[in-house]
Amino acid sequence: MPFIANTAQQRKQMLSEIGLSMDDLFADIPSELMRENFNLPIQASEMEVLKYLAELAGKNSTHLTCFLGGGFYDHFIPSAVYSIVSRSEFYTAYTPYQPELSQGTLQAIYEYQSVICRLCGMEAANASLYDGGTALCEAMMMALRITGRNKIIIDDSVNPIYRVMIQSYTRNLNIELDETHCTAGMANRNEIMSLLDEDTSAVILQNPNFFGCIDDFSEIAEAAHKKGVLLIVSCYPISLGILKTPGEMGADIVTGEGQSLGLPMSFGGPYLGFMATKKKYVRKMPGRIIGKTTDTKGREGYVLTLQTREQHIRRDKATSNICSNEALCALTASVYLSLLGKEGLKETAQLCADKTAYAYQRITSIPAVKPCFKGRWFFNEFVIDLPTDAADVIGSLIEKGFAAGFPLSRYYKNMEDSMLIAVTEKRTKQEIDMLAEALEAVL
Amino acid sequence: MKLIFEKSIPGRRGVLPAKSDVPTTIDIKNELLRQNDAELSELSELDVVRHFTELSHRNFGVDTNFYPLGSCTMKYNPKVAERIAAFPGFADLHPLMPQLRMGGLLTQGALKVLYEMDMLLREITGMAGFTMQPLAGAHGELTGIMITAAYHRDKGNKKTTVLIPDSAHGTNPASAAIAGYKVVTVPSNKNGVMDLDALKSMINDQTAGLMLTCPNTLGIFNSHIKEICDIIHSVDGLAYYDGANLNAIIGKACPADFGFDIVHLNLHKTFATPHGGGGPGAGPVGVTDKLLDYLPVSIVVKRNDGTYALEYDRPKSIGYIAPFYGNFGIILRAYVYILMLGKEGLKRIAENAVLNANYIRVKLQKYYDLPYPGLCKHECVFSASRQAKKGVHAIDIAKSLIDAGFHPPTVYFPTIVPEALMIEPTETESKETLDGFIDTMITIAKTAESQPEKLKSSPNTTPVSRLDEASAARNLDIASL
Amino acid sequence: MVPKELRCLQTHEWAKREEDSGIITVGLTDYAIEQLGDIVFLELPAVGDKVTKESEFCTIESVKAASDLYAPVSGEIVEINESLTENLELFKADPYGQAWIVKIKAEDIAEFESLMNAEDYEKQLKG
């Protein structure tokens, strides 16, 4: 029997030592509730399972050159990330409830919290949430707790998938969601300012936004703070290698998706939701938090702290219901950022920006292609307008070996001819040239 | 041990990005750039590898030694699952692929994994359909409560409360509260299970549902479970099964047969995916027929031609609770596990888990108080109240176990047992390991009798001794800036 | 031991009427402080806040628990003990004196009169 150590002989001995039979062990379940047969496949050996899953893996088209973005990117993952994170002392451990035995996880996550603060320009971070979308939902709940108000303003340049998640989360709650409409690829300042009032809890924005456009929300932060409203910014961590941080803009809560920090795209997860805030809001922040302290001999050590806000103590009054988080993914992010280091992250960010700028030039020089948001600064994604349905064009390009981009019609009205193209440091000049040639041929 | 930032040497480089091969260099306008570089460490690859290797030596996992954390099911994590999750065909798959034209055809392997898992979990639990979207157990609980709310809204019911036992895991009331319900606590009776009379008196037309785990957090199976579900149904409430303790009954019984309407499973518990130091997990949710319409978008369906597709058109769905299809990498690992156990293996999980727990129970009951004596399932809960009289508390016992090389069991939970020690060995532990643990626990009990002071200073064999948690909370230092 | 002249709530708050005024001083009994363990944080309400009898008015946090404190009478917060938040050790040192938490201007002094007295509180703790 795979993974079960005890032999039949040992089981027999154990049962006899405790004076029970196997039937006795399940005598507390009424016999009419017991089931004899489960229609499951027969046991497979490791060898068979590897073969079968390799076949299934082969049925996924990962050979297409990837220009897909939308918040999830094909970045380069250094080999040392894998070797470190696959150490079983890290991945077969659980939550560090016994700190003396878990200083490894605890210090690693304290370093992760620190690195997130440094990246985002904030003062306090938690030990991770599930993903960028649930992190944004939690940030919204946190703002509602802090302000005691129930109105949220959110611009539609924020990731549409996250906006749908927020709508799903708030359906049962007494919260007013006001969606503003981005103009020319930027968050709609006028609409936001006009909606800001003393009932507003927070404004939610994203930088770079879903279309890849870069913005500065300092003005909005100022106007919001005058009315006691908080600014929540969802951001893209690689971009923070060079871009103005949400902290510098005056954000109160920062969230984002950490997949780009050393995690494979893995068809939707596991991912990494990060959250950072100002010191004064720490007790309102959900999730686990690691703190530094000393032991009985005065040595430095790390522990889970502020646990009384969490579900296992505060129960129905907890800041969140989160228990298991994305600890291993947080470790991965910390390892990735340590391996790249200060200069490496900057260079990676600059590479993304340079290659995207090149792709933009090359692709918009095709006569039939127009840039959608001309004159905007963008980081590693941009939108182009085509003379025909973007989804069809993307379909044709798949046949030519490219996952060329994302059709915006899925989430935005009147954008059937527009597509979002992402370029990371992994894309070569040759790949970009070939995409441009293929696109021109298709149009 | 120094923080990684303290080891930094200005100018030192680690992994070098490739050089740019494009002729453009873009200088984004200064107002949009950060004024100072992010203060990340500057270290060589070797520096980083050594730092994290040293950290790993200060950690303890299932692969290290016995890890009987009650309620967490710390069973062995099969390495083949790690190998498969790293296949580029799975790891390099962008989640937006299915949303491209013909995209479904590009992801048939991944969609099949999701579909098959739905089918397997239906068979294991008896439920009619699953969503793989929830990203952890607590997330599954929230999903289940949101489905409850959608059901009642659809029927025009005005429900405001959710019933939860006093022994429940904290995520249960937290999830109910976040979904907008008022929590009403149902007491346990002197046998440690839900007080049926109390339940009958507490239900009314405001009751939206009941959240329960069975066996409960004391490791006790309530043989009246079907009656409990019937009582909830009598007011058109929904019965929710917290699957954290499925390891006790998997392959022997089905929550659907007990009468539950909604079930969540913890893949990182029962289905052997790694705990990762706190996560990632996955909490798929299964429902009965009448609730299928409310499952989150999207679901994988099998078309007549045998291909798999994502179904988005679900008008009564509660919406999206995660960006995509769930923690796919975790779901994939659980799939591998189920295939390797198969029909024959599935039964043996619960049999061995329950045997191991009862073996510990019987061998230690002379030395530690057993507040609820009698058969337990996959975990047993002792109380250190006898030792507490000598000044040795559950925490001292836990710390002494550390010096003996074991990870302590869960302490002080469930809160209805004073000085609780919750021990869950799981089926992957051998008799020799259990014997070693039992011997150590007996030695500790004897030391608590004769020389209690000896246990108060433990642990003494770890890089740090007991840490000052009060000071951590008072003088909050949660980041090095 | 709770000083005899004080009144108590079952939820372990003590209340003291200042002279013959309508001002009620509120704190936590030594029993509650013992139960909480090491107190790490106190979140005070603001002066001017309205409170209702037996509703939460403030939160106290220890390493093991975060508890809500309940108002003994309805009224308005007229004074808060700000220095207490920086000197949490006063809870153990002087629970009935320097560790007073808030002063409430009672709407209806009869609510104070109807509270349990110290002796009855100590009795029901034992029982």
Helix content of chain A: 25-40%
Mean pLDDT of chain C: 90
Give the overall shape of chain A: globular
Radius of gyration of chain A: 25 Å
Low-confidence stretches of chain C: none
Question: What's the main sheet of chain C like?
Answer: 7 strands, antiparallel
Report the average pLDDT across residues of chain A. 95
Total beta strands of chain A:
15
Q: Please bin the fraction of helical residues of chain C.
A: 10-25%
Q: How are the strands ordered across the major sheet of chain A? A: 2-8-7-6-5-3-4
Description:
Helices cover 38% and strands 15% of the residues of chain A. Chain A has 443 residues and is an alpha/beta fold. Chain A has a seven-stranded mixed sheet, with helices on both faces. The longest helix of chain A is centred in the last third of the chain and has 38 residues, at 327-364. In chain B, helix 2 (79-85) packs antiparallel against helix 10. The longest helix of chain B has 37 residues, at 328-364. The mean pLDDT of chain B is 95. Chain B has a seven-stranded mixed sheet, sandwiched between helices. Chain B has a three-stranded antiparallel sheet with strand order 10-12-11, covered by helices on one side. In chain B, strands 8-9 form a two-stranded antiparallel sheet. In chain B, strand 8 (299-302) and strand 9 (308-311) form a beta hairpin. Chain C is 23% helix and 35% strand. Chain C is built from five helices and ten strands, in the order E-E-E-H-E-E-E-E-E-H-H-E-H-E-H. In chain C, a hairpin with a 3-residue loop joins strand 6 and strand 7 (66-70). Classes of the chains: A alpha/beta (443), B alpha/beta (481), C alpha+beta (127).
Keyword list:
heterotrimer; B: 481 residues; alpha/beta; Aspartate Aminotransferase, domain 2; seven-stranded mixed β-sheet; three-stranded antiparallel β-sheet; 12 strands; 10% strand; C: 127 residues; alpha+beta; OB fold (Dihydrolipoamide Acetyltransferase, E2P); seven-stranded antiparallel β-sheet; 23% helix; globular
